[in-house]
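Supplementary Text 2. Reproducibility record for the structural model of the 246-residue chain.

All settings were left at their defaults, and a single model was retained for analysis rather than an ensemble. We include the record here because the model underlies the residue-level annotations in Supplementary Table 4.
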Amino acid sequence: FLNFIQHHRQSPSACSDLLTHPVTLNVGGHLYTTSISTLQRYPDSMLGAMFRGDFPTTRDAQGNYFIDRDGTLFRYILNFLRTSELTLPVDFMEMDLLRKEADFYQIEPLIQCLSDPKPLYPLDTFEQVVELSSTRKLSKYSNPVAVIITQLTITTKVHSLLEGISNSFTKWNKHMMDTRDCQVSFTFGPCDHHQEVSLRVHLMDYITKQGFTIRNTRVHHMSERANENTVEHHWTFCRLAYKVED
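Retained model, structure tokens:
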């Protein structure tokens, strides 16, 4: 792929198509899909050199580009490449680690942002976060692959949103596993796992209609047992809210 880019630098149309073509990265076990043009946003960075063909690349068993770095923090790296803006959760506690990642990838504008002490948001606002996760356990030895169990979880400190979900999604109440202070979970068995997809679509629509936008998506694969695979999908939604004086 990168050799093709190098050999067709003189063909603008071919290069343009390749630069917008999706590419998947495995960063520390977390999969991210983006475009070559996003990864080359800052040509002098390590990623810019890597996907220009000037830097050696490694592939995982599935053929994805592999980078042995912090997969969770890469979401912030990738979002910065997409928007040239640094946006972090209000309760973000890993600033030192993120600085090290920015230094590793040699993204100079991000390094400068992380060194700038000014607040990320207006002082009278804060960021509200909703995490939506789908955990699907799959049998390794069935053909076609059989779903053993699926769990859909919504986690947020916005209690009004959780209450709205509990009141608006009564159709799926028989699947509700648990309701806690900051979490609502639904569990689907082998025969009705397809309903999880329907619920997820409706939930994402409901959350976005409350003013939240998707900040990040990620996929994580793992094998916990000899006969079972687990696939996790995560969506992070955010919105700004004004602080209310007591």
